[in-house]
Amino acid sequence: MAEATLRTPPLDRARVLQWLQTYGVYAGVALLLVVNIVITPHFMSAENFRTQAVQVAPVIIVALGMALVIGTEGVDLSVGAVMALAASVTALYLGYGLLPALLVVALFAAGVGLANGALVAFIGVQPIVATLALMVGGRGLALVLLPQLEDLRNPALASLGSGGVAGIPYLILIAAALALLVAFVVRRTTFGRQLLAIGDSRPAAQLAGLPVRRVLIIVYVACALLAAVAGVLATARLQASDPTSLGNLMELSAITAVVVGGTPLTGGRVNIAGTVAGAVLIQLLTATLIKHDLPPSWTQIAQAIVIVCAVYAARGRGKR
Amino acid sequence: MQRTTSRRPLLARPVVVALAAAVALTATACAKTEDDTADNKQSETAAGAEQKVATPKAGGETCTIDAYGAEKIDLKNATVGFSQSEKEANPFRIAETQSIKDEAKKRGVKLLTANAQSQFSKQISDVQNLLAKGADLLVIAPLNSDGWDPVLQAAAAKKVPIITIDRKINAEPCKDYVSFIASDFVEQGRRAADQMIEATGGKGEVAILLGSAGNNVTTERTKGFKERIAEKAPDLKVVFEQTGDFSREKGQQVTEQLIQSKPGIKGIYAENDEMGLGAVTALKGAGKKAGDVKIVTVDGTRNAVQGVVDGWISGVIESNPRFGPLAFQTLDTFTKGEEVPQDIIIQDGAYNADNAKQDIGKAY
C-alpha cells in the first residue's frame, strides 16, 4: 500500500539501483581508469596494464568458478585451500614433468570438488559449512604434503608464468579464454540453464525432473578445477610453491568480485562479464592505493565501501 | 522425496570418506619433486654459524637462582620443555626448533617439545602440559608478549625457571622469567640501512616492503632503518612503504606496482628474505638486470644468500635462529647457581658480495 502511494519517486530510485547493479561495476572501473590517468604518473603504459592484468588473472579465474557456485545459491569457501593444494601438489610431482604434474593437480582438485559437491548434493549440508570443512582440511593437506616454501626451476612452468604470445602473457590469455568458456556455458547450454534453475529454486528444479545432484556436483568440481588452475598459474608466476600463504583470503576476493559484479547471492542469476569487471575493479582500487603509497588499511576500507555499495544496489533489486 | 533423500546419505558418506582416504594415500606414495636427485638442503650447521652474545654488558642486570627462588639442579638430569610458537613452515622456525633439539641431544638432556601452530590459546595449554609432564626448565618462543599470567603462576608454583627466546614476554625479569635471548630488531634495521647506503651511494629514492602490520618485528625493523637513513644519508629518501605481509607472493605483487609507478627507484629494503625474493622475481619479470635496483633484506635464509651470490641482492642482515647452544648454556650457568644476564642480545652476522659465497654454509 505504501508502495502504491509513493509510486513515482521509488520507481525512479529502483531504476537507478537496478542500473547501478547492472552497470555500476563498469562505471566504477571507468571512473578509476580516468582518475588514475589524471593523477597517477606512468599509468598509461602497456607495461602497467600488463602488470594489472597479470595480477588480476588468478582472481578472475577463481571468481568464475565462484560465480557458478553462487548461481546455484551456494558458496565455495575452499577455493583458497585448493590453490594451496595445487601449489604443493605441483611441487611434489614436478619431477615427472609439467604435464603429469598438472594431471595430478587436476585429480586432487576434482577430489575436493567431488567432496564439496557430494556433501552439498547428497548429504544436504549447507554449502557454507561443507566448503568450510574443506577450506580447513584442504590447506592442512597442502601443508602436510609440502610443509614449507619450495623453489621451482622447471623451465616449462617458468614460461607458463612469465611467457606469452605476441606480448600478451599466457596468464591473461588463459583467464580470457576461461571467462569466455564459462560465459558460453552459462548462457548457451542446457547445463547453464539447469544450473540457474537450481539456483532459483532447488525444490522446483527437483520437481521438474532436472538432474539436480549431478549438476551441483559438476558445478563444485568445476569451481575446484578453476581454483586449481589459478593456483598453478600463481605458482608459475612466483616460481615457487608456497602453500602457507598462496590463496590466503582468496575466497573472499572471489566472492567480492562476484557480488560487486552484480551476481546476487540468492542464486538463479550469473553475471560473468560483471564478475570479471568486479575483479578488475578491486585490482585497480588496490593498485591505485599502493601506487600512491597510502596505508594498506585504506585498501581494506575502500574495498569495504565498494562491497557495501554493491550490496545496497542488490538489495534494491531484491525488493522489487 | 523425503524418504529417498534420507536414504542416500548412508551410501554417500562411506563413498566420500573412501575418496578422501584414497586421495590422501596416493598423494605421497609416488611423489617426485624436482630435488629428488640433487637434494642440497641439508640442515647441518656450518662451523661458526651458532649464535654469539653481542654485548656481555658489565652493568646489565643479572639474575641468579637464589634471587629467582628456584632450586639448583644438574642440567644433565633435568627435563627441559620447549614451546614453539609458530608452525615449522618457514626456515626461521625450522632452524630454531632444530637447533634446540640438536643441542639437547648433544648435551644428553631430556627434551619435551610442543608447537602452538600460531594459536596463542594452544601455546598456553602447551606450556601447562609441559609443566604437567614434569618439565624442570622451560624454553619458550612466545607467540605474543602479553597474556602469560596463568602460565607464569603455574610455573612459579612449581619453581620452574623460564627462558624466552626471539620474542619477549611482558613480565618482570628474574621474578616471572629468568632471561630473554633475542636479536635486536632495531639494530637489524640500522644495519640494513648501512648496507642500503653503501649499495646506493647514499642518494636517490628507496622503498620499504613492510612486514605484517601490528607486529613488533615490523615496527622495530622499520624504526631502525629510518633512523639510520635520516642520520647518515639525508639524501636517501624513503618514498614508498607498503606491506608485503612477510610473504613472497605479496612482495612480488607490491614490487610490480612499485616499479611501474616509480621507475626511478634505486633500492628496496625488504623486512624479511621472502619479500626480498618476491621483489627479485618481480624485477626479473620486468626485464631488469641484477643490480639495477639494490635490494637489502633481513633474515639470512639460504635462498636470500644465494641471491647475494647471484648479484640480485646487495646485502642480507642475519637474524640468527640457532638459539639452542645459547639457551642451554644459559640454563646450565643458571642451574649451577651462577649469575646470568637478564637480557641476552645476539650478535647477528651479515652477508654481502664479499662474503656470501664462502659463508653460504652458515645460512639456514
Automatic annotation (TrEMBL), chain B:
- GO molecular function of the protein, one example? carbohydrate binding
**Top-level taxon:** Bacteria
Q: Which residues form the Periplasmic binding protein domain?
A: 88-337
Q: Name one GO cellular component term.
A: cell envelope
Q: Which Pfam families match?
A: Peripla_BP_4
Q: Where is this region: Disordered?
A: 31-56
Keywords annotated in UniProt? Signal
Q: Which segment of the chain is annotated as a signal peptide?
A: 1-29
- Chief location of this protein? other
Localization, per the record, is: Cell envelope
Q: Where is the composition biased (Basic and acidic residues)?
A: 32-42
The record's family statement is: Belongs to the bacterial solute-binding protein 2 family.
| Name used for this protein in its record | ABC transporter substrate-binding protein
Organism whose genome encodes this protein? Streptomyces coelicoflavus
Upper classification of the source organism reads:
Bacteria, Bacillati, Actinomycetota, Actinomycetes, Kitasatosporales
